[in-house]
Amino acid sequence: MRIIRRRGWEIAESQVTPESAVLNRRSLLGGSAALLAAAPGLAHAEPNAKYAPGRALTEEKYATTYNNYYEFSDSKNLWRQAQGMKTSPWTIEFAGMVKQPRKIAFEDLLKQVSVEERIYRHRCVEAWAMTVPWTGFPMAELLRIAEPLASAKYLAFETGQDKAMVGLNEPMYPWPFIDGLAIDEAANELAFITTGMYGKPLPPQNGAPLRVTTPWKYGFKQVKAVVKVTFTETQPRCFWHDILPNEYGFWANVNPAVSHPRWSQADERLLGVDETVPTQIYNGYGDFVASLYSNRKSEKLFM
Ligand code: MTE
Q: Does 1.10.510.10 match the CATH number of domain 33-293?
């Protein structure tokens, strides 16, 4: 007997989306990344809780209007302001411990990867959560293109700065926004570079044109509008850790049993619906990522 075990992130589209929308999106995803970017009008169906395995998609209007992006504001209502950001042309720099430091245009990067869709749960340390159909490519492909040296152990992602980002005038924050991962985390199959959501290119407020998506970690690790990736031998500095080292650690894996000083992490509020559900360790993705930490037990893995 052949047993096919569905892995946690593979929430079947057919379980959350009517078939017509699935087929539509499939044909689109089958095309090139350029096609994906050129076809922003693809409709996305409402989440259908009846077919969803445990959790429905968050409605697009909530995921795109309740945001964290301190470069614009410390309020959640920044999406209008973010429309003023220039996200094209866009260049990404590979720096530090790489075979050849260089810059690459976003379109050229897209030509070297295959774009796919992943439906992931997203958990913010502020105890809200959403479930989003992201499009993008595995972070392992970014590693392949960047060509880090074998001695590199970490990588840091840096957010670009734009005139529309009025929050950058706030001197109490250590701009630019930077956060990082260990190389083996970045190579894990769940780690994703996101370029779209709900079948459309990413909107500015969610991190256009490309952002980090690591669903087993709290959202503050998921750097938006990446302009630079620096490979290092030692743990990079991270924006929130710099500001409040006792509240935000480097690893920041989701764990309901480890409270943040200001928020219990036991439960999470689902955006757009009046519902609170229990939080799961590694945000429910332990089968894929727990082994990354078996040799790191002495570290502060959970906040
Ligand atoms: N990236 C940058 N550059 N600036 C930020 O303030 N906030 C982080 C993360 N990435 C942030 C960022 C936090 S705290 C979260 S929860 C997610 O973005 C929120 O992503 P969303 O707005 O798409 O929901």
A: no
